[in-house]
Design goal:
single chain; 381 residues; alpha/beta; seven-stranded parallel sheet; 16 helices; globular; binds nicotinamide-adenine-dinucleotide; binds magnesium ion
């Protein structure tokens, strides 16, 4: 029986993680859940999974939840302290970081320091603090298992291989809803257009990131840290069918890939049970029905989210934090209809251009850079 905690239990990854728990009651036990503001769903989850702890971001929401679940022995926490307390509970063996954004940074680091294994969906954390997290993972000997489908595919492709035989990572991308469009066609695109992802049903922020290709940019940086591979050896390939979830080419030019229908349950379940592989119900890939798998180079002129990520990684230090923080703020403004689609790139680029790099920022400095980036964006709005 593995005891787990889930940060972001009411979101897309969080609810799919709980669905896996539902089908593996003898093997997984939920000790703690945390969510942002969805009181109703968190209450339902508490009643179904009986965690000992739960947290809401906002103290007011936490108070409301305490009243609703007064009949159940569960402790309701709030704020960043609540997230950190949950992440470090002695009872938890593995923390699923399914929270969105770099708010996951401090809880994830605290969990690693407390010796927890991590099933990592929250890529923003690794993007901003990979240089802190990866050495800690090594030092404490914990398992950091990727949930992101591409990184899970790479991880699965490497199970029987030695890391020094990797020649390239081939990171696949669907291309998002605007694949094939040129810049002149994008200014009028609304959030509803951008939220219409062709292959994956995900949270709003990552769906917009998929439309801008910032998601792929974040994933390049994530892959760099997870697999200790330089940016020059990470190549993004547009593969609109999302059947090949990523590939690794080795020094002998042989390639190993992981394939499957686009369904996050597989990478989530793989991370929860690694190194075991468990059955999972659902559709299988029907190659003769699909017939063709296609590949293209990304259009980096139009979708600047990708080249800006390579630049942020090359600049290093605090620059990936600026790239990520500026994107988080820009996406939030876009989702509130306050800026246009292409303004997301303008904001990220502007924030990166005005930033003075801190070579190896500590957690405090990363959080300060985040605030300064928000301040810069507020000032130009
Ligand atoms: P989502 O928006 O659907 O869910 C986010 C969750 O985080 C919700 O439960 C929300 O309540 C919680 N949350 C947000 N702010 C919080 C706060 N301050 N305190 C506590 N909880 C808070 O997002 P998602 O699509 O599930 O994505 C989660 C993470 O997983 C992101 O980092 C995303 O990039 C990554 N990811 C998602 C998918 C996917 O298929 N959805 C795939 C790969 C990676
Ligand atoms: Mg992904």
């Amino acid at each position: 029986m593995k005891k787990i905690g889930i940060l972001g239990s009411t979101g897309s990854i969080g609810t799919q993680t709980l669905d896996i728990v539902r089908h593996n009651r003898d093997d997984l036990h939920v000790v703690a859940l945390a969510a942002g503001s969805n009181i109703g769903l968190l209450e339902e989850q508490i009643r179904e999974f009986h965690p000992l702890y739960a947290a809401m971001w906002n103290e007011e929401a936490a108070r409301e939840l305490r009243v609703k679940v007064a009949d159940i022995p569960v402790k309701i926490l709030s704020g960043i302290e609540g997230l950190i307390e949950i992440s470090t509970l002695p009872d938890i063996e593995m923390l699923v970081t399914a929270i969105v954004g770099m708010i996951g940074l401090r809880p994830t680091i605290a969990a690693i320091k407390a010796g927890k294994d991590i099933a990592l969906a929250n890529k923003e954390t690794l993007v901003t603090a990979g240089h802190i997290i990866m050495p800690l993972v090594k030092k404490l000997g914990i398992n950091l298992l990727p949930v992101d489908s591409e990184h899970s595919a790479i991880f699965q492709s490497l199970v029987a291989e030695s890391p020094d035989t990797i020649s390239k990572i081939l990171l696949t991308a669907s291309g998002g809803p605007f694949r094939g469009k040129i810049t002149a066609e994008l200014p009028g695109k609304t959030k509803n257009d951008a939220l219409r992802h062709p292959n994956w049903a995900m949270g709003q922020k990552i769906t917009i990131d998929s439309a801008t290709l910032v998601n792929k940019g974040l994933e390049v940086i994530e892959a760099h840290w997870l697999f200790d591979i330089p940016a020059e050896q990470i190549k993004v390939i547009i593969h609109p069918q999302s059947i090949i979830h990523s590939m690794v080419e080795f020094v002998d030019r042989g390639i190993i890939a992981q394939l499957g229908i686009p369904d996050m349950k597989l990478p989530i379940q793989y991370a929860l049970f690694y190194p075991e592989r468990k059955p999972l119900k659902g559709e299988s890939v029907d190659f003769t029905a699909i017939q063709t798998l296609t590949f293209e180079n990304p259009d980096t002129e139009t979708f600047k989210g990708l080249p800006l990520a390579y630049k942020a990684l090359a600049d290093g230090g605090s620059m990936p934090t600026v790239y990520n923080a500026a994107n988080e703020k820009a996406v939030s403004l876009f989702l509130q209809d306050k800026i246009g689609f292409l303004d997301i790139y303008e904001i990220i680029e502007g924030a990166m251009n005005q930033h003075k790099i801190i070579p190896s920022p500590n957690v405090e400095e990363i959080l300060t850079v985040e605030l300064e980036t928000y301040r810069y964006i507020n000032a130009i709005q």
